[in-house]
Protein: Xylose isomerase-like TIM barrel domain-containing protein
Amino acid sequence: MGNLKLGATLFCYGTEYARYQYDFEECVKQAYLAGAEGYEIVGTQMIPSYPNVSDDFLGLIQRLKAKYGIGPVGYGANNDKGMMHDRNLSDNEMLADAVIDLKAAHKLGCKVMRVQYMLSPAAFEKLAFYAELFDIKVGIEIHNPESPASPLMQDYLEVIKKTGSKHLGFIPDFGCFAIAPNKPHWMKALKAGVEESHLELAANLRRQGVPLEKAREELLSLGAHPAINATLQGMYGFVQFKSKDELPKMLEELKTILPYCFEFHGKFHYLDEDLVEPSIPYAEILSIIKNSDFDGYLISEYEDELYCGGTEFTRRQLQMTKQLLGKE
Structure:
């Protein structure tokens, strides 16, 4: 039996933070009130002196930990190749940025840092030395449309095995196990005038593996509202989904990488009062993790595609997770 702890990323409160409804302390307070045992901080979003951590900000972190009993356990790094106007950053430049993020994570006391696949497998391999130096476990985020078995993630797995480093691994995002369309996208399409029958057809075309352009042509030929294009793009992009029949295969893929996982992102897009995420099979995923030797955090991560704020949804998600894990 593993030791799955529950946390939340302060990204959940990004809408409230961006609207100046919450300051940093209020984000931490809301994570605490929702039931988080620790939180992830995304450096570019909430560290005023990013990429460095000032002593003043560190002092704030420590005061809030004393006040609410929770502190940063995960650090969300920024891996952006497009910082120059005329070219992409090189592997060495991306590596240097990742080392700066490691320093920030270390100063904050985080033991896990999430990196993204813009950091190439070659740069990821070179990062092992620095991860070990700062004693921080660095996980490549497996984010939809990637999956544990996709060729790119297998390249990272090869690096992990090649280095033998206990400081390189994965952070799977639950969104890559989606088995139904994204509900907020669906809701926005209906509000824009798209007929539900056209949305259902779009979902079926995606399940059948019909190419995006062919699906688009068919829908528009049937008179679908043009607003369906955004929903359709999501179905084939960062919120794509597979048939429910493929879930057993996806869960087996998860099992193969579990020994290399440092943290999980509990992605969720919508939660009614019934505490069911419409597109992501939480019960099945959590059953695999609960019955493994995993020791670390599940970090709740709300994508506020409805721009309504994450406070209530994050509370619901942590309540749902506790129920599924038998912690309530």
